[in-house]
Amino acid sequence: MFNVDLNCDLGESFGPYKLSEQQEILKYVTSANIACGFHAGDPRVMRETVELAIKHGVKIGAHPGLPDLNGFGRREIKITAQEAYDMVVYQIGALQGFLSTCNETMQHVKPHGALYNMAARDPKLAEAIAQAVYDISPSLILFGLAGSELTKAGEKVGLRSAHEVFADRTYQSDGMLTSRSQSDALITDQEHSVSQVVKMVTEGKVTSQQNTEVSLKADTICIHGDGEHALAFAKYIHETLKKQNITISLII
User: Fold this and answer.
1) Does the pTM exceed 0.85?
2) pLDDT, tens digit, 9 for 90 and up, residues 21-49
3) What does residue 156 show for φ and ψ, rounded to 5 degrees?
4) What is the rounded CA–CA span in Å between residue 91 and residue 251?
5) Distance of CA 235 to CAs 124, 164, 192, 208, 242, Å?
6) How crowded is residue 214: how many other Cβ atoms within 10 Å of its Cβ?
7) Which reaction does it catalyse (predicted)?
8) Cα–Cα distance measured from residue 205 to residue 247, given in angstroms and rounded to the nearest whole number
């Protein structure tokens, strides 16, 4: 029997701009990564998303990103380790405020976009982010790309690290995600996506764009809430995993 967490990036609307049918998506996931206002989100959206996640029994995590609303946090910005630390502490604190008003605890922290990918490769940034999470609460779980510098840094500092895999992204032979600047970065076909997910969970492997087998650990699967067909994607993956006798459960 295989067990895996299913997470989704949510709360990424901003002002009048609305992304995803998040109330419906919350029916199919076990963890939600809520934007904290830097790459997306705003105070109202954060509060509403927290309330919806609690209503659906979905565990909540902070989703800190780079301060880049125009680029949705997906453009790399050169920052120091100290700046990374400060950004993460600041954004976790913002979400923690809303959780406190609801008497809810935070489960995890998952960096967003470019910050996530930079930390996957850069040990110094990874260590700064892991330290920021640990300093706020050693009980928090750090979500990071499976086998990356970020998960290594989390484990080194004493955090539980959840190795994350992606339902809608392709991989390179070094285990990194294919850059979004490339045309083959995203998987839009549901069958292809589910096939990749099942293989990652049951075999601990993914086929790279170079047609090599890459070993990885799959503790949690990411679905992007800003995708064009995010709701249908979440529902289909949820239903297919159940048919494959893969239990969708919270990270314990």
Assistant:
1) yes
2) 677 899 999 999 999 999 999 999 999 99
3) -65, -40
4) 22
5) 37, 19, 15, 25, 11
6) 19
7) 5-oxo-L-proline + ATP + 2 H2O = L-glutamate + ADP + phosphate + H(+)
8) 18
64: left (phi over 0), alpha (psi -120 to 50) or beta: beta
Strand-pair partners of 223: 8
pLDDT tens readout for residues 197-251 = 999 999 999 999 999 999 999 999 998 876 667 888 889 999 999 999 999 987 7
- How far is Cα 33 from Cα 12, in angstroms, rounded to an integer? 10
What is the residue whose two structure tokens read 């959780």?
Answer: 99
Angstrom distances, CA of residue 170 to CA of 3, 113, 188 = 22, 15, 10
- In this predicted structure, the answer to whether residue 178 has a pLDDT above a threshold of 90 is yes
What 3 state SS string does 35-103 have?
ECCCCCCCHHHHHHHHHHHHHCCCEEEEECCCCCCCCCCCCCCCCCHHHHHHHHHHHHHHHHHHHHHCC
Cα Rg of the chain (Å, integer): 17
